[in-house]
Amino acid sequence: MVAGALALAACAEPARQPDFVVHGAGVVISTDVAFAARPDLPGRVESTLQAALDYWGGGWGDLEGRTITLDGADHVVCQGVASAIGCFDGDIRISTSDMGEAFACVEQTALVHEVGHAVIGDAVHDDPRWMDFAPLAQRLEHRTGYRADAEVDCPIAVSVWRHPPRR
Q1: Whole-structure pTM value
Q2: Do residues 63 and 27 make contact, with C-beta atoms less than 8 angstroms apart?
Q3: For residue range 35-48, what is the model confidence (pLDDT) as tens digits?
């Protein structure tokens, strides 16, 4: 039994080192979307995280020691669900696309939503803030987005962040 567990552990992928760190949270870039290759990404991640932390009533300590992975897959696996676009299970993993379309900027991803789980938990989405992102969207709007060959708009679609409360 112990030998089997050791064999599985030996086959597991080693934890990837962060590409950069923001206030104690490691950020891993595992995607080839255009915004992820831009030199402004660390600042954009930091400002998006700060806005999300402010919205949820959290602080940098809520993210310290955690890993945030920007994943190029259309979905991330989250607690047995294979079709999530974001996940918080102690660390944050977010897809950099939605329905196969690459996001133009980090602000469009489910990062804001997953920071909510890191700060308040609320796995069943009972908190009414899951449906009222207008002030946060206004704070993050009018930013530049990127495609492979051009700068583009980065419109915020709060539907990516919303989750209807449990009824």
Answers
A1: 0.88
A2: no
A3: 999 999 999 999 99
